Amino acid sequence: MKRAFLGEFEEVVLLTVAVLDESAYGVTVTQEIEQKTGRAVGFSTVHTTLQRLEEKGYLSSRMSGATAERGGRRKRFFTVTTAGRKALVEVKHIREQLWGALPPQTLQLMGN
Amino acid sequence: MTPPRLADRLLHLFCAPDRLEEVQGDLHEEFQYQFRRVGARRARWRYWRDVLGFIRPFASRRKSKEYQKIIPFDMIQNYFKIAWRSLQRNRLLGFINVAGLSLGMACSLLIGLWVWDEFQVDKGLPDGDRLYLVRLTDGAYTSDILPGPLAEALKKDVPEVDKATKFTVWSNDFLLRAGNRFGKKVGLYASADFFDVFQYPVLQGNPGLAIQSPNAIVITRNVAQAFFGNSQAVGKTIQLNNEKYYRVGAVIENVPQNSSVQFDWIVNFSEAEEGWMKTWNNNAFRTYVKLKNGSTQAGAEARMAGLLPRYQTGATAKPILQRLGDVYLYGEYTNGKPTGGRIEYVRTFSLIALLILLVACVNFMNLATARSSLRAKEVGIRKVVGARRLSLIGQFMSESLLLNVFSAGLAVGLVQLMLPYVNPLVDKQLAIDFTAPLAWGSLLALIGVTSVIAGSYPALVLSVMQPARVLKGALSSTPTGAGFRKTLVVFQFSLSIFLIVGMLIIGRQMHYIRTKQLGLNRQDLLHVAVEGNLRPRMEAFRQELQRSDAIQAVTTTGELPIRIGSTGSLDWPGKDPKTDASVSTMKVGVDFTKTLGINLLAGRDFTAADTSNYLVNESAVKMMKLENPIGAEVTFQRGKGRIIGVMQDFHLSSFHEPIRPLVLSNYPKWTNYFLIKTQPGKTEEAIQVIEQTARQLNPGYPFDYHFVDEEYEKLYRSETLVNTLINYFGILAIFISCLGLFGLATFTAEQRTKEIGVRKVLGASVGGILVLLSKDFLKLVFVAILLASPVAWWAMHRWLQSFTYRIDIEWWMFALAGLLAVAIALLTVSFQSIKAALMNPVRSLRSE
Fold first, then answer.
1. CA dihedral B152, B154, B155, B157 (to 10 degrees)
2. Structural contact between residues A78 and A49, judged by C-beta atoms closer than 8 angstroms
3. Which residues of chain B neighbour A69 with C-beta distances below 8 Å?
4. How many Å apart are CA B182 and CA B817, to the nearest integer?
5. Which SUPFAM superfamilies match (chain A) (predicted)?
6. How many distinct structural domains can be found in chain B?
7. Nearest CB to A73: which of B24, B30, B32?
8. Is the pLDDT of residue B469 over 80?
9. Residue B745 resides in a domain
10. Mind listing the pLDDT tens digit for each residue in B506-540?
11. Residue A40: exposed, middle, or buried by beta-carbon count in 10 A (0-12, 13-18, 19+)?
12. What are B247's strand-pairing partners?
C-alpha cells in the first residue's frame, strides 16, 4: 500500500476538520487552529491546504449554509473521508511506535 | 460595515471562479468577526492582508478542463426537445415555416443547379484559357460570322496565334450510311487545326491526323455505337448523303451537352469549300484560335488590328478575341466592347432565387417574433434559472437549424421530383450529383446561411429580454419587433409585386412577338431538307407537290427565313463609294414571295429564267435612294443584274434586330430547304403527299419534315425561358409570402380575440371587424406597391430595350399588379379575419 504522506500543517488541518466534525469550513478551521495552537495562520494557507487535501481524497466537501454576514454566499463544509481517517490513524500509529521506541531515560529527560 | 470594495475586486480578478464563492464568503464572515473584535480599521487591514494572501497560484488555478463539458449535450438535447414541443403546440405555424423554407430552398437549389450548369458551358477543354473566339468589329457592329480566309491569315500573320480553325455557321444534317445502318446526323466541315484547338477526349484513332485528309471522317462515340456497335470503328467506311465514302479516321468522346459547338461528325473543310468561301467579302464562318503559351489576348489583338486592310482594300474592321469560356455568357457586343449577354439572366435569376429564399426566411422571422410574447416567458424563466444570453441565442439558432435541416431534406426531395419536369423547360440535363463534395458543401452552406438568417432576429431580440419585466407580464401587451415585422412584410410583397409586373410585361412582349405580323406568313409552312436525289430533281419534286390540292405553293431557299444572318456587299450605279452597302441576303428559288405570303409592292416574283436578277425589300430601296427601283441595275452575288420586284419589309430575324436592307438572288445551287405552304386544315394530307413524293424521288433517305413555326419559337428560346421561369417564380414568391401573411393574420386574430369579443359586445358589426383586421395588412401592401413599382419599371424598361420591336410599358400593368397583390393579400387575411369576426364573443370572453 502506498504510504500516505501528510505534511505537518496538513495533518493539523485534517485533524481540525475531524475535530470540528460537521461544522468545518474555512473560517472555523482557521479560528480553531489559531486557538488550539496559538499561532497565526493565513486564511489563504488554510484554504490551500483544504483544497489540497480534497484533491488527495482525504476530504470531501459540499456547499451550503449561506448567511447574511457572508453576503448570501455559501460555505464549503468539509468532512473527512475514509481515506482521510486511515491516513490520520496511520500517522498516529507511526508516532506511537516512535514514542514507544524512545529509551526511558530520554523520555524522562523530556519531563514526562 | 462592509469589507473594502477594492480588495474584493482584486479577489474577483485573482480567484478561480469555482472557488470564489466560498473564499469570499469566508473572508466576509471573518471580516465581520474581526470587526466586532478589533474594530473597523484593523479588520480592514486584516482583510487586505488575507486577500493579498490569495494572490498565489493555487487560488488562481482554474478547475481542470476534464470536469467541464466543451459541448453541453444535455442542454442541446433540451433545445431540440423544446423546439419540437413548440412546433407541436403550433402545427400551423410549423407547417408554414417548413413549407415556405422548403419551397424557397428547392427553388434556390434548382436555380443553383441551372447557374452552375450555365457556368460550365465551354469549360473543361484542355488549354481552355488559351482558346478564343474571333470576332470582327468596325467599332459599331460586331460579328462572329467571318470571312473564310481569315483563319489562315491569322495563323500566318499573327505570331501569337498557335492554331486557328474555322467551320461553317450552318450545321449539316446529313444522311450517314454504313452497311445497312443509316441515320441523319449533324456535322461540321472544319479546317485542319480543329482538333488542335478543341482537344476532345479521343477514344480511337488520331483525330488530328484524320482531319488532315479529305477522305476521312471523325465521329463521336454515339455515332460509332449506332453504326458499328461495340466493334472497332476506325478503318470502316461511312457514306455521306449517299454520295462520297469516307474512312472513319478517329472516334472521339461525345461532345458535352453544354458545349456551344455541337456535332456528331467532322470532315475536312475542303470537302465543302466553294470559290466564294475563299473571298473576303462573304461572311459565313466561325473562327477559333489557340494562342501560344505566354501570349496575351491584348498582345494578339494589337497584332491583328492591321491585318484586314492588307487583304481587303478599305477594310475598317479588325479582329478581336474572346475567351471561349466567356463566349456563352458574355456574347453580346456593343460598339466593339462586350456588354454582357446571357450572364444578365444568370445574375437576375440568382438574385431572384436569393430573394425568394429570403422571403422564406422572413416568414420564419416574422412568425418567430410574432410569437415572441409567448416565448418570452420561457426566456424569462431560463434567464432566472441562469441561462446566459449566448446560450439563449444558441437555443433559438438550434431551433432554426432544426427547421432548416428538415426543410432542406424536403427541398432536396422536391428538387428530385421536379427535375424531370424542369429539365425540358430549361433544355438541360440538370441533376444533383450526390457523390460530389461540392453538392454537399453547397447544401450545408445553404442550411447554414438560412439558419443564421432565419434564426438571427428571434435569437437576438428574444435573448435581450429582461426577465423581471417579462415575468411581470409587461411584454404581452406590447409585442416586440412590430415595426420590423411590418418592414419584412413590405419586403415580401414588394418582391411579389415586382415579379407580377415582370410576369405581365414579359408575357405581353412574348405575346406581341408571337402575334405581330412579321410581313410573312409562317402558318402552315413546312420545311423539308434538299438532300440526296432531291437535289438534282428539285424542280420535279416541286412540280409534283404543286399538283396536290393540299399544297398551296412550294419554293426553295438556302436558309430558313427565320434568322437571316448572311450578308453580302451590294453595288449599284451612283453609289457613294464611302457608304457601307452590306446587305442581308438569302438565296431563294421561284415562288418565294408567294409561298411565304410576302407582299410585293411592285414588280414580280422570281421565275426560273431570272438567273441574275434580284428581289429587294423596301429598306434596300431606301438605302439605294432609287425612285424607280424596278429595272434598276445592281451588282450582287450573281453579278450584274436588274431589280425585278420590291417586297414589303418583313422581319428577317428576331425582334432584337431591326429590319435591314435585303437582297434575294435566285440561286438554285445553294438550296438547302424546300418551303412548302399547305392548305389550312389539310396539313395531314399534305404531309402524306410530300412523304410519298419524297420516297418516290429519293428512296435512299428517311423522310423528315419540320414546321417553320417551331423553328421560329427557337429564336426566342431564352426569352421563353425567362417567361416561364418568372411565371413560376412569381407564383412561388406570392405563395410563400401569402403563407407568411396567413400565419401573421392567424396570430393577430388570436391575440386580439378578447378585443374583438369586447368590440362585438359593444355593438361592432362583422364588417367593421373585418376592416379593422385587414386594414393593417393592406397598408403594408400599398407601401409595397409604391416601393416595387419604380424598381419594376426600371428593370422591365431595361429588358425591353434589347428589343427593337417592343411593347410600351403602360400604367395599367402596375395597377393590375397592385390590384392582384391587394386581392391576394385580402383573400389570405380574410380567412382568419372572417373567422375571428364571426366568433361568438361569449366564448372569447368567458374565460376571464
1. 110
2. no
3. 28-29, 32
4. 55
5. Winged helix' DNA-binding domain (SSF46785)
6. 4
7. B24
8. no
9. yes
10. 999 988 988 888 888 888 899 998 888 888 888 88
11. exposed
12. B216, B237
Note whether B167 and B311 are same-domain residues. yes
Domain containing A38 equals 8-109
- Kindly state the cell numbers that stand for B627: 425612285
DSSP state of B571: B
- CB contact at 8 A, B598 and B519: yes
- Residue where the block lists cell 443509316: B182
Query: Which residue range(s) make up the domain with B598?
Result: 532-700
Residue pair B321/B301 in contact by the 8 Å Cβ criterion: yes
Among chain A, residues having any CB pair with chain B shorter than 8 Å are 25-27, 30-31, 42-45, 47-48, 51-52, 63, 66-67, 69-71, 73-76
In a domain, B818, yes or no: yes
Q: Do residues B262 and B133 share a domain?
A: yes
How far is the alpha carbon of A13 from chain B, nearest alpha carbon, in Å? 16
Name the residue among B216, B204, B273 with its Cα closest to residue B246: B216
- The Cα of A92 is separated from the nearest Cα of chain B by a number of Å equal to 29
Say whether pTM exceeds 0.90.
no
Yes or no: say if B707 and B333 are a contact pair by the CB < 8 Å rule.
Answer: no
How many structural domains is chain A composed of?
A: 1
Task: Flag whether A1 is in a domain.
Answer: no
Count A/B contacts: CB-CB distance under 8 Å.
64
**Where residue A76 sits, what CATH number does that domain have?**
1.10.10.10
Same domain, B322 and B366: no
pLDDT tens-place string over residues B165-217:
999 877 788 888 888 888 888 999 999 999 999 999 999 899 999 999 999 99
The closest CB to that of B53, out of A42, A52, A73, belongs to A42
Q: Which of B700, B730, B761 is the last residue of a domain?
A: B700
Instruction: Say how far apart CA B185 and CA B174 lie, in whole Å.
Output: 6
Nearest CB to B28; choose among A31, A44, A73: A73
Which pLDDT score, from 0 to 100, does residue B474 have? 57
**Which candidate from A26, A48, A69 shows the least CB-CB separation from B32?**
A69
Give the max Cα distance, chain A. 58
Q: How far apart are CA A49 and CA A53, in angstroms?
A: 6
A39 to chain B, minimum CA–CA distance in Å?
16
| C-alpha angle B212-B218-B224 in degrees, rounded to nearest 5 | 160
Residue B216 near residue B206 (C-beta atoms within 8 A) = no
The answer as to whether B168 is a domain residue is: yes
Is-contact B642 B631, C-beta < 8 A?
Answer: yes
If you ran DSSP here, which 8-state letter would residue B804 be given? S
B194 neighbors B266 (Cβ within 8 angstroms) = yes
Confidence of residue B477 (pLDDT cuts 50, 70, 90): very low
For residues B64 and B678, the model is more confident at: B678
Cβ(B50)–Cβ(A40) below 8 Å = no
Map residue B169 onto helix, strand or coil: coil
CA distance linking residue B248 with residue B266, whole number of Å: 10
Top-confidence range, B471-475, B576-580, B661-665? B661-665
Shortest CA distance from A27: residue in chain B = B26
Cα nearest neighbour of B64 on chain A: A55
Q: Cα–Cα distance between B121 and B621 in angstroms, integer?
A: 42
Q: Is residue B593 part of a domain?
A: yes
Nearest to B21 among A27, A44, A74 (CB): A74
> Residue A24 carries which DSSP code?
B
Asked if residue B473 has pLDDT above 70, the reply is no
Burial, B714: exposed, middle or buried (Cβ in 10 Å; 0-12, 13-18, 19+)?
exposed
B710: pLDDT confidence band, cut at 50, 70 and 90?
A: confident
Confidence check: pLDDT of B601 > 70: yes
ipTM: 0.85
Query: What SS3 string covers B694-740?
Result: HHHHCCCCCCCCEEHHHHHHHHCHHHHHHHHHHHHHHHHHHHHHHHH
Q: What is the pLDDT of residue B60?
A: 52
If asked whether residues B359 and B446 sit together in one domain, one would say yes
